[in-house]
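Ticket opened by: R.M.
Priority: normal
Category: complex prediction / small molecule

The reporter submitted a protein together with adenosine-5'-triphosphate and asked that the result be attached to this ticket for the collaborator who will pick it up next week. Submitted input follows.
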Amino acid sequence: MEAAIEAVGLSRSFAGVPAVRDANLRVAPGEITALVGPNGSGKTTLMLMLATLLRPDSGAVRIGGHDAVTDARAARAALGWMPDTLGAWPTLTVRETILAVCGMYGLSGAAAAARTGEMLALAGLEALADQRSNTLSRGQKQRLSLARALVHGPRVLLLDEPASGLDPEARLTQRRMLADLAARGVAVLVTSHVLDELEEVAANVVFLRDGRTEAQEDVDAALRQSTQWRLRALDEAALDAALGRRGIPATRRTSIGGAFHTVEVANDDEAAALLAALVAEGVRIVDFGPAAGALEQAFVQLAHRAVDPPTPAPDTPTPANPEVAP
Ligand SMILES: Nc1ncnc2c1ncn2[C@@H]1O[C@H](COP(=O)(O)OP(=O)(O)OP(=O)(O)O)[C@@H](O)[C@H]1O
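Result attached by the on-call engineer:
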């Protein structure tokens, strides 16, 4: 199947300092892929190139089958872009903002009004429709930003930190919306630092470190290796004794949900064997799983692997702001 989003050997430097280096990724239609990496690893720079808003120094980008550099207009028609800050017209109301975006995509009159109504309902912004966009809360701005990205029914969605500023219920609604769009064939690439939530919604992960995409087999290996596991038993003393007999050091912690133990486990096989052994010994386990999400543990592991020293790229212009591709 042809990829909906494809980057091959993508690089971009600022003032000779590489921000993205030889990055590769591929997202199929109907897939949600998480783009994760430490602060400054190049996620936004990569997203801007995919969104046709920043010209790559080298490499190729295809969006919905269109070359994002030589056929930016077609690529833009295929994609919806949600930046990490709204950047809307401050004097326009929420409704006027969406109507203006409808106009950019060639919708006017009754068709634009109908589409705007749909977008307001989708984003839960009907009650705020006549409020000026610069008076919205951060979370409300995020909802408007997503509505704006969806106006033209794009087959590709690029979302930079879409959940930032949203309350838990709005995050849940957004995750359901993304899953729904993916089920209808939309390819979604999403960045976030809230990895537990990404893990729930994304089927694949691309890890960016120091501007480079990590090899998929390294990411998969890191995801399989959850070192800290969390256990809770009905009888804490019985659990302590069973772990002691097996010579497994455990740390007791307390949380809002009650006390639990954490142990070091080398991999999923070892975790499964430990659970089977404890149950066989009659320890009544009520909670057993990775102490933090697998994605979060993989992130920490990948982020701390040895890094190559940064190499200056050949001379490149220094833009004050990201340069907009024509
Ligand atoms: N317009 C610019 N001019 C100069 N340097 C830039 C520019 N944009 C980004 N950079 C640099 O490129 C690197 C990657 O930045 P980028 O914003 O892409 O990272 P990020 O992974 O999105 O970070 P975060 O998680 O903090 O949002 C950083 O070192 C940043 O300082």
